[in-house]
Amino acid sequence: MEIQVSQLIVRFLQQLGVDTIFGMPGAHILPVYDALYDSDIQSVLVKHEQGAAFMAGGLARATGRIGACITTTGPGATNLVTGIANAYVDKLPVIAITGEVPTYAFGKGGLQESSGEGGTVDQVTLFAGVTSYHKLIERTDYLASVLNEAAKYLRAEIPGPVVLSIPYNVQKELVDEAILDQLLSRAPAPAPLPTIPRPLIDDSIELLKQAESPLIVAGYGCIRSGAQSVLQQFCERMNIPVTTSLKAKGAVDEHSPLSLGSLGVTSAGYALQYLQQKTDLLILLGAGFNERTSYVWNQNLLRDKAIIQVDNNPHQLDKVFTANVSIQADLGDYLTALDQAARDEGLAAKTCIDILRYKTDIESRAEAEGSRIFDSKFDLVKCFYRQLEQHFTEGIDLFDDNIVFAQSFYRVRQCDRFYPNTGVSSLGHAIPAAIGAGFKVERPVFALIGDGGFQMCAMEIMTAVNYKIPLTVVVFNNQTMGLIRKNQHQQYEQRFIDCDFVNPDFALLAKSFGITHRKVDSIQHCESLFDQLDVHHDINLVEVMLDQDAYPNYSSQR
């Protein structure tokens, strides 16, 4: 039986497990939209194509499933670029379907053409650096091969985004539906990781024996590999404190007496000081030691320390530093093997200082010296995060554009899901990403964002309104681009330029959207905030007021 290519594409998406697709129609993609009409896939109309890509990424990040977005050619496709780049850096399985002008119009200056012919926008080149796979499908004779290749990258153990661009006339061509039978119905088995050589486990045990004060640095690899429970058990049994990268917050419960919180430039500094003052063995598990975590690659942090580095990606090993023991392995398998070897050796738990008292002492000294990263001007922000912890003990999903505050103030539990704006770190990401997750996540979903980023994506709140997706948006309102103003204050003699602005009246804005608004401008208001909101069913806009001249006490080296 013959069906249109547009129908085949929709069935292909269904075979991938896609049941929600975010996008905006245009003339050159309407055949696929018409096929969606008869399918079980929910089509979600967004306000801007960048929002569609961020929503697809948010769904993928929260569920591990393939996220999907769809746009027309020309500006529809080009508006996807930042969201697709974000998926590429975050290694998210996102597929974008875009239209294109008919092939017979290539090079003739067709409206919104992006074929690359005749001086038009070259979409293939545009997406080449931010996709795992991108194809302009000009013919149908190789369609099965293209779709299989796309599926391979989307289902890979380390996935990445795929963009398929289909000219209008090709969408309407007839093909044999038996093409679907040629498509792989499941993900290929991942290549097995090398068996961990016993000598490397023995070397790890020997370093662990010799160490008086080891420290575990858990990276996002621990979360991606599902090693949180075995990590928690191992550190508790061996009495080894743990710090995490920003993206790995929650790899161990940050309420644990062994948690030093997050390691990084914008953190409170507990882990940094412990690393510098106490640590003689560093165990890096799925952590890349990137700019934030390494304090801009400060080699002094690693001086005179033994290092064990374990990662399932061999390209991460010895990339920034040379470890005493480097192991390519699944992190769960490594920790299980290490724990068993420690038991077999009768290795005793380490003697560890009281971490809670240690953190309290650091805060007291910083207070006395006037060197706190966040002074009293940030007490309202700190209060907000404490209320967030206290009211949602069963866990939340939190997408955070403003990662500076959460790194110090928010203690993530293993029941929480914390999604910092890493990737390409685009302002405005949190709201659409949270909306995308909200289509599949049943517990409370939050988007935390600065007022500058908010104005980049505020209209996507209406997408949540249109589809009745519960969401709580928290805006830190200081009427400035906070990071830029901080840098201009610290490094450019307060020569402020293009950082300050006027905000809309958020109460009136929320009223126009038909959603709930709350303004938090005192500790009293903060402490009663969540008694006034229904975060399970409503869409809420909360503004937390912040002094424009409140500057975190850290240097970003920029």
Q: What structural class results from the helix and strand content?
A: alpha/beta
The tally of helices reads: 22
N-to-C CA distance: 61 Å
Mean pLDDT: 91
Tell me the CATH architecture of the largest domain.
Answer: 3-Layer(aba) Sandwich
Overall form: globular
> What is the number of independent domains?
3
* Strand order in the sheet with the most strands: 3-2-4-5-7-6
Describe it for me?
With 558 residues, the protein is of the alpha/beta class. It has three domains: 181 residues, 3-Layer(aba) Sandwich (Rossmann fold); 160 residues, TPP-binding domain (Rossmann fold), CATH 3.40.50.1220; 173 residues, 3-Layer(aba) Sandwich (Rossmann fold), CATH 3.40.50. 36% of the residues lie in helices and 17% in strands. The protein is built from 22 helices and 20 strands. It has a six-stranded parallel beta sheet with strand order 3-2-4-5-7-6, sandwiched between helices. A six-stranded parallel beta sheet has the order 11-10-9-12-13-14, with helices on both faces. The chain has a six-stranded parallel beta sheet with strand order 16-15-17-18-20-19, with helices on both faces. α2 links the parallel β2 and β3. It starts with a strand and ends in a 13-residue tail after the last strand.
